[in-house]
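Narrative summary of target 7.
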Amino acid sequence: MTARRARSQSSKATKASDSGAPDKDAEPAHLWLNPGDREDIFHETAGSATSTGIPYWLVLLLAGAIAELGLSLDSAAVVIGAMLIAPLLAPIVGLALALAVGDSRLAIRTAIVIAASTLGVIAVAALLTFSLPFHTLTDQISARTRPNMLDLAIAVFSGLAGAVVTVARGKRLSGTVPGVAISVALVPPLAAAGFGIGSGWNWTIIRGSLLLYGANLAGIVMSAMVMFLIVGMHHSQVLSVATAWHREKEGNPEWAWLGRIPGIRSLGILASPWARVALVLAFVALVGVPLNSSLRQITREAHVRHAIDVAEKQFTRPGRSFIVSSDITLGDGATQVALNVATTSWFTDAERTNFEKNATRLAHEPVTLVLEQLPASTGDVANFTKLLGSQKTTRARGGSASTGGLTSSLPETSASIGTAVDMLALPDSVAILDYEVVISGSTAPPEINLVYLAPDSLTTQTVQIITRQLRQALQSPSLLLNGQFVQRERRMDPRSIAAVDSVATMLTRYHTLAVRITAGADISATRLDSMVVRIRRAAGDSARVVVARNASRGATLLIRLDTRTRPTPPGPQEK
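Modeled conformation, tokenized:
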């Protein structure tokens, strides 16, 4: 009986060989596949991958437009909707199948579809972006401009899931197809690249998003190809099915030209399974190099950020200080941190050094600190209250002094404001020269015009904090603060009478100032003497004007406080 069965099977094989058709019963079984399932898998996958009529292109371009609008509106829900309807996954899985089978014609057809689909989505997104009235870089766009190896890993797992759904017979896994479409996220990176083009050829966005798309493409093709090889799609019987399938499709004018290309039916690189695997791995390695570099950079940023977060705790002290802003600049093997710290008492150089030491130790790279100390927004109001009775001469204009919560007597108001100004905690490089109280009526808010000496003008944050502190100290929530900036060091033209008079007027008005004039070799002694005499006459004290020479050109004016005449800030009055 066994001999008869063997002869019968041999006869079937001979007939199948003579007829040129594959023998399904002779195919070896793999995993859960039954004999003959591979033929159905090829027909379904190849047919879906090459069904690129008008509906395919219409849905694809609509998905690209939806994805672009979702990115521009920063809407994750809209972007997910675009992922769900985009049909781009089918030709990519078809390419993986072609590489597993060794079908050169199917590989080229699907590659052409993928390339045309890629360009189509980018073009639609670019045109839509160009037509929008705004080009805001949203979080949804930024998230697709810095891919790394983890994105490649996601694509690999997504490709495996898609291939498993493809080769699984039955409908038990059909409900997972939308999840696979979301996980691979093919269209959003292309829409982000279109945004980069439409918003003015932003190459940072274009490169990052195309790299993410390349990572997704490489991961899906590689993992799906591996799954197809595991289930035996590389066997010669499947290639015979592919040959018969192409013979049926030769009448299609859309792809008839492809079969007439010399050598297209048997590309040498697709003849060997190992050559096909090597081709895919080379593509994966090509996108993997920049992805790995990006992952290292992201890892470094996270490590440095954690180290700085730990070291920053020394500047966050309840009742004394808090961090207003933190800006980290990653350099080549070193990091610079710029901190804005609001504080009621200044941090010393030793504390700055301690921050750098701790941050460097934790980050495993040099960390330097640029610290800008600002007056704390919650000053010691009790100390201000105790000092409200102290006297200080100040100027005031206008009528009633009862505006905005200030005291009803003008002298008391002047003294209170003077004391509050003297108590302001300012950076070491800033000095108050003068202030003026402006109370113009019962309805207008009171104003303080503050004149200060500094290397640069105060930042908006600093002015806001000083304003809040003065409002709290003077119990005047509507008080306004205006700042007038006197630059500590600047260039001056000794030939300009206006520039010389400006310095002279400043010394006349502010008796606490002194100047140092450094003249270059190009300034004649006569010109310099004339300028110095004019300024010293206005200063009334020749010691307040110092002159020096150097080999440079032009003149530099350095303004400083005259420590001989600088008044001592008033302290609490003893009762």
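Residues 273-311 form the longest helix (39 residues).
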